[in-house]
Amino acid sequence: MPAAAQHLRTRTDRLVRTFAVAGTGAAVLALPLFGATTASAATPTATTPSTTLAGYPNNLDGWIRESLAIMAEKHIPGTYNGIHRNIIRESSGNPNAINLWDSNAAKGIPSKGLLQVIDPTFNAYHVAGTSFDIYDPVANITAACNYAAARYGSMDNVNGAY
How many CB atoms lie within 10 A of CB 139? Predict the structure, then answer.
């Protein structure tokens, strides 16, 4: 191999390795802190019922659909796609996700659940008829959508941390 080609190949290989390492770091940073590598918490198991009390599937799809039904009754705007997009970004679909490293966590009020809501926001925007447990998927989604509607017009308008 000519020396010029060998030099170009070495430089190209180094550049590819640099981007691969940088890309890996970005991917790791993009993952939520806990439980993001699996969706097992969002899928029924032998210990969780296959449907919610309201009869929806006990998984991410069912939780969103049940929340949308409650939201329709309470006139809270939002769509399946807007909710799903934000859930995937915030918690990867893990209803037990908790953020222990951001500014809220530093203040002692970590973000929790599917849509990473802090306790004061959950309490202020809790929707009657849902659980008072911030980790309850339907309660978390519905309260977060209620907050997003008040602050941004709809969860559909939220495209980043809120």
Answer: 25
